[in-house]
Amino acid sequence: MYASKTALVVHPDMNALSKFQAALSAKGFVTIVARDLPTALLAITQHHFDAAIVSSQLAEEGDGWPLAGVLHLVFPGAFIGVLVPSQPDVLTLQAAINCGAREAFPQSRSVQEIVDSIPTKATHTRSQARSQPVQ
After folding, report:
1. Which residues have CB under 8 Å from 14's CB, separation 6+?
2. pLDDT confidence band for 120 (50 / 70 / 90)
3. For a Cys-Cys bond, which of 17, 63, 112, 120 suits 33, CB 3.0-4.6 Å?
4. Of 12, 1, 29, which is closest to residue 126 (Cα–Cα)?
5. What is the mean pLDDT of the chain?
6. What is the model's pTM?
7. What are the residues whose beta carbons fall under 8 Å from the beta carbon of 47, sequence distance 6 or more?
8. Measured between alpha carbons, how far is residue 120 from residues 31, 67, 112 in Å?
9. What's the angle, vertex CA 76, arms to CA 19 and CA 26, rounded to 5?
């Protein structure tokens, strides 16, 4: 069993990544950051994540949603939040549900508010994730 929780933050803006990393570290997370889809996919193959915050727009509009879906499939017990440009509407909430995201955050919310909404206890332990048989 690992001692600390691990989070992935995927956002194209380095300033946002830095703020998330600092806030998550203060909450006890080891934070891995990625600015684009290929780097995020590489991180997914190298780490186990208890939480992830993904921008809905990485290189083009909406390309963060499929990444949230992949994170949900690979780490079903992880908290996954998606940053969206404006207040979530019905279509945004539908996309969040379809991709397995637990929450859609408007980018206008502060980084600290977003990080504070992440549950402090991981709902899915690494030992459970590792013990699943491959079929």
Report:
1. 35
2. low
3. 17
4. 1
5. 86
6. 0.83
7. 6, 8, 32
8. 14, 23, 14
9. 25
